[in-house]
User: What shape does this take?
Amino acid sequence: MSMRKHNFYAGPAVLPLEVLVEASRGVLQHDNIGLSIIEISHRSKDFGEVIEEAEHRLRRLMNIPDDYAVLFLQGGARLQFAMIPMNFLGDSETAVYTDTGEWARQAIEEAKLFGKVHIGASSRDENYSYIPKEIDIPDGAKYLHITTNNTIYGTQWHSIPDVSIPLVADMSSDILSRQLDVSKFAIIYAGAQKNAGTAGVTIVIIRKDFAEQVVRPVPSMLDYRKHISKKSLLNTPPVFAIYVSMLTFKWLESIGGIPEIERRNREKASLIYDVLDKWEVFVPTARKEDRSLMNITWRLKDSQLEGELLKMCEEANIVGIKGHRKVGGFRASVYNALPMESVKVLVDVLETFGRKYG
Ligand SMILES: *Cc1c(COP(=O)(O)O)cnc(C)c1O
Assistant: This one.
């Protein structure tokens, strides 16, 4: 295989080489059964073992308590934006949302279709460059929704708010990246394509008693209770995506699990932030204490130089470094699977650029 590029894409994103090798083997022939993983029934014993292993490994990695269900659904994080209020927010009820970026805002818009939304906190006033520290929660609110990592703006909740109402979290871009207490949440959801596998499967971790509190009739495919009772096999699930997630969980366990990946993630992010802070030509966009360990965003003091930095990155085989089209500038996504070697290549480019332009 020719050299792999240094992949800083925000999603779909880099996967461990070990996972790609195993996944490609599984596509040719799964486990010596004479069939590909993508040509067997989702009700077969062989696929049953794959989805069970995926759940088992995820439970072990995240210490998921027994009173939580683990689901592998479709429709992406975007469908969860609608499915959560559809199930749990009555027409005249209020849910509290934190407005911390583009994805949070889209979750808010979907919730408004089903009930009342109270914006408990917002960082819109400063272009989503920070995480609000106070959340206003009115009496009787159904749940609080947060986006633990703001993929586009490069901010992250470093401490999870302690609240007395059910907490719902979009963890699409930082699931499995750091130690977290699952029991603080009623629902955790994440599209897999950033840190947990490939596009096509959405991970949902939901407290079983919360899943029972459905406020209106909902279609079967959008009913958490049905997915729980059918163990994510209500219809044909995305078998390949679940398989790749299972392999990604296996890889994560093999390197030492969440404590080890968190250590690596801190080390990788701090190498990049250090060089960004060192040279004035770089203007990191997120407030220091709220900086994301997963998506590192910055602009250049002189935007005329953007082409020059992009060219240097390209020459160093770095891809996916351009900021989201909504915000411009640059973004380095440094998910779990991004090797330290790629970080070092980027840091070298930034150092050379900084030395040249100050
Ligand atoms: C990427 C992303 C989404 C959208 O995920 P889809 O699976 O494409 O629907 C939602 N929320 C966050 C925080 C994301 O990073």
The chain has a mean pLDDT of 97. The pocket of pyridoxal-5'-phosphate is lined by residues 11, 76-78, 103, 147, 151, 170, 172-173, 191, 194 (CB under 6 Å).
